[in-house]
Each structure stands twice: as structure tokens, then as C-alpha cells.
Design a protein that fits this description.
The chain is of the alpha/beta class. It contains 13 helices and 19 strands. The structure holds zinc ion.
């Protein structure tokens, strides 16, 4: 037998076996929880049972009896919740307190190496209870986010459901790497776009290669003037509108990095779907967001995390921005602006648990229940996936996490997730395959 034939003979039974296994209908699973915070309702449900078939939740009620042949996972007194959703991450970034940290990753790490690190970040996120991420650009790693998403979807690696933005956009000279000799051709942290036609073309290209969302950088150079957090706007109105219009034409939504009032106003005028960071939101901009139904991802913790390092490196504005954002958060909450969970994880080290943001939201005025909803049902609505994700109820995908304590008393409990199920498959805790 030639080596090739021999290989075929060895592989054939294995392949048959694998396909037979895939067609087997998995037994239903009954999950018992001491309490259930379902992501939507106000009050928790005691002694809840959740029946899961395949990748879906089929029934939720107190004291369900398991159907015949069902696997029962008893989580005792634990509190169950929907899988958490983080709508602002960078799995291809490993923390960038200073420009030097950022540049080193783009200059000294290949995209394959960064993609390998991204697979570790994706696993970390899932094990921390984040079953869905909206990853808002690869920071110079081209379309590697699409590859990580594909590997997760195909079961090659464990990770959250991914909605990816690929490369993001900014005009020439506004986004790192900056400050190098003109003789050097440096890598770019985004796709450089100048002019409305180029903007439309870039959107088409990114969608072609797998972008679920389009992201652009609306502003830079933040400063305080007359008590307002201001900024320099990156794109002309014509360019920003071209990005948003083309994205919407292709069925994609748009997220804008916008920190100062000027950048926020430009992005809202262009018609974006979410404002990222948004530190400089004032009453007028918040009212405009309400009117247009735009979501806000405040990314509080990353601001706190980078403030000290950036201030020490000569940019004290980053410390001011923390205080300004806290005021904006209180106002937004009072007005009822839709605040979605978004952390910018990757902008800080993945070793920091991205669930920390919840405690900051509570410190800034949310109830623990509001903070949990922002990371479940509200975040799902931002994604337009409110029928699939963000709640534990019949018909939804079976993305369920659990914690030992009471997150409604101490939301910091969410930093100690003990059980993770995604799409009916247990990845952590009781019922997970032994490593
Ligand atoms: Zn970011």
C-alpha cells in the first residue's frame, strides 16, 4: 500500500465515526439553580430549573421534573444568569497603557503570533463567563479576528460567540503608529481612509472579508475648554456619513470611538449605532442619543486602568476624563440612555477579569440588576440579537453562567463565575469534560 493509501485507510473509519457522532441527538439537560436572574425581569426566580435541548433553552420553571434520559446538572444554591456579553473588546491586543506598549505589539509580534495570543484571550473571556463578544477591531492584525471567530464556530478552540469589526478606520496621520521617521514604512493600527469614495470602498472590503460591524475613530487629541471635554474630529462630515451609509446599505451597524463632545456630535450626526467611550457626553448629546436610540458603551474600567500610566507619560487629560465620564454616566442613567456593557478588554491586560466593569457601573449609580441587564439583555439588543441572546428563557440559545454567591447584593461576585454553558455545551464547572 502506498503511504497515501495507507493514510486513507486509517482515516476512513475515524471520519465515519466522527460523522455518526455528530448526527446523534444529544440528551436533554436539566439545570437546577438555587436562583435565576434571567436578564430581563426585575425579581430573581427561586429553585429554578432550566431545560436545554441541543443548543437551545426549551423551558424555564421552578421545580421541573427531568424528562426521561435527561442529564441533570444540579448547581445547588448557585445563582444562574444569562451568559455575559461584552460589546467592546480587542482579543488581538494585550494591554496598551502607553504608546510604547502598543507599538511593541505591532512591531515585534507577527500577526500569527498575535492570533495565537487571541485564542488564549478568547478562552479567558469564555471561562470568565463571557459567552458573547463584540470585538471592535484588530489593531493592525488585519482580518485575524474573523479567523479566530471561525475557529471558535467550528469547535477548533473554545471561545465566546464573536461579532467582529475587522480593521476599523481612521484618516492619514490620526492613529498609531505615529512619530517615526518618514523614511520608514510603519504598520498601521487601522485601515487608513481618506475621502468618501475610499470610505465606501473600505466598508465594502471589510464586509467582504467578514466584518459583522464597522468601526471608525471619530476623534483624538482630547482637551478641556469651558468645562467641556472637547476633541479634534478625524473625518469630515462627508467621509463619516459615507462610512455609515455604506455600512447600513450592506446591513452592518457602525460603532464610533468618540471621547470628546466634538467627536461624539460628528458621529451622531453621521448616524452611528453606538458611541464607544463617550466620556464627554453632555446633556445635549445625551438627548440626541435618546432621540436616535443610540447605545453607549462607557468602558469605565479601562479609563481608570490607563489613566495613571498615561498621566505619568505626560498626558494628564486621561485622569480628568475619568471624572468627566462619571458625571456623564449619572446623567445618562437618569435620562434613560441605553447603556450597554463594554469594557475595552485587551486595551488592558486579559489577566484582569473583564467583569470588573460591573462594579464600576454600580459605583457610578446603577443597581446591580441594571448592571447585569446591561451585560445581558441590553447588550443583546445592541447586537440586534435580542431574540437569541441575553436572557434565560424558552427559545433562546443556552448561554448560561452561575456564581456561588448573590450578585444582586455584591455584583463583584460576577468576577468568580463557577459554571459556563455556551450553546448547551458546558465549558466550566459541574458537567464540564475533565481536562
Ligand atoms: Zn477599544
Amino acid at each position: 500500500m502506498t503511504p497515501r493509501r495507507l493514510l486513507a485507510a486509517v482515516l476512513a473509519p475515524a471520519l465515519l465515526c466522527a460523522s455518526a457522532h455528530a448526527e446523534e441527538k444529544p440528551a436533554p439537560t436539566l439545570l437546577r439553580c438555587g436562583r435565576l436572574v434571567d436578564g430581563k425581569q426585575g425579581a430573581p426566580i427561586s429553585n429554578a430549573a432550566i431545560l436545554v435541548e441541543g443548543d437551545r433553552i426549551v423551558k424555564v420553571a421552578a421545580g421541573l421534573t427531568p424528562p426521561e434520559g435527561a442529564r441533570v446538572i444540579d448547581l445547588g444554591t448557585a445563582t444562574c444568569l444569562p451568559g455575559l456579553i461584552d460589546n467592546h473588546t480587542h482579543i488581538l491586543l494585550q494591554g496598551d497603557i502607553t504608546a510604547a506598549d502598543y507599538d511593541a505589539q505591532l512591531l515585534k509580534e507577527s500577526i500569527p503570533y498575535r492570533a495565537i495570543r487571541a485564542t488564549a484571550a478568547a478562552r479567558t473571556a469564555l471561562m470568565n463567563g463571557f459567552t458573547t463578544l463584540r470585538d471592535l477591531e484588530t489593531e493592525g492584525a488585519m482580518y485575524a479576528d474573523v479567523d479566530v471567530k471561525t475557529a471558535i464556530d467550528r469547535g477548533v478552540i473554545p471561545g465566546p460567540r464573536m461579532f467582529v469589526a475587522t480593521r476599523a478606520m481612521a484618516p492619514t496621520g490620526t492613529y498609531p503608529l505615529l512619530g517615526y521617521s518618514w523614511e520608514l514604512r510603519m504598520p498601521e493600527g487601522v485601515q487608513i481612509v481618506d475621502g468618501a469614495d475610499a470610505a465606501r470602498r473600505a466598508v465594502r472590503e471589510q464586509v467582504k472579508y467578514g466584518a459583522d460591524w464597522i468601526k471608525y475613530y471619530s476623534d483624538r487629541k482630547y482637551f478641556v475648554k469651558d468645562g467641556a471635554l472637547r476633541s479634534w474630529v478625524n473625518f469630515t462630515d462627508e467621509e463619516a456619513k459615507a462610512i455609515v451609509d455604506e455600512a447600513h446599505r450592506l446591513g452592518r451597524k457602525v460603532a464610533a470611538h468618540a471621547i470628546g463632545r466634538d467627536g461624539i456630535e460628528s458621529a451622531l450626526k453621521a448616524g452611528v449605532d453606538s458611541i464607544e467611550h463617550g466620556d464627554g457626553l453632555d446633556d445635549e448629546m445625551l438627548d440626541l442619543m435618546l432621540k436616535k436610540g443610540v447605545y453607549w458603551c462607557p468602558t469605565i474600567y479601562v479609563g481608570v486602568y490607563v489613566a495613571e500610566g498615561r498621566a505619568a507619560a505626560g498626558n494628564p487629560i486621561w485622569a480628568t476624563m475619568v471624572d468627566v465620564e462619571r458625571l456623564a454616566f449619572g446623567k445618562a442613567l437618569k435620562k434613560g440612555v441605553k447603556i450597554s456593557y463594554g469594557t475595552d478588554a485587551g486595551g488592558y491586560d486579559w489577566k484582569e477579569n473583564q467583569a470588573k466593569e460591573l462594579s464600576y457601573m454600580v459605583r457610578y449609580g446603577m443597581t446591580p440588576m441594571q448592571a447585569l441587564q446591561s451585560a445581558t439583555s441590553v447588550a443583546a439588543a445592541l447586537l440586534g440579537k435580542q431574540d437569541e441572546l441575553g436572557a434565560v428563557e424558552a427559545g433562546k440559545l443556552a448561554d448560561i453562567v452561575a456564581v456561588a454567591g448573590d450578585p444582586l447584593r455584591d455584583v463583584g461576585e460576577m468576577e468568580r463565575v463557577t459554571f459556563v454553558m455556551k450553546g448547551g455545551v458546558v465549558y466550566k464547572g459541574a458537567g464540564a469534560p475533565q481536562p
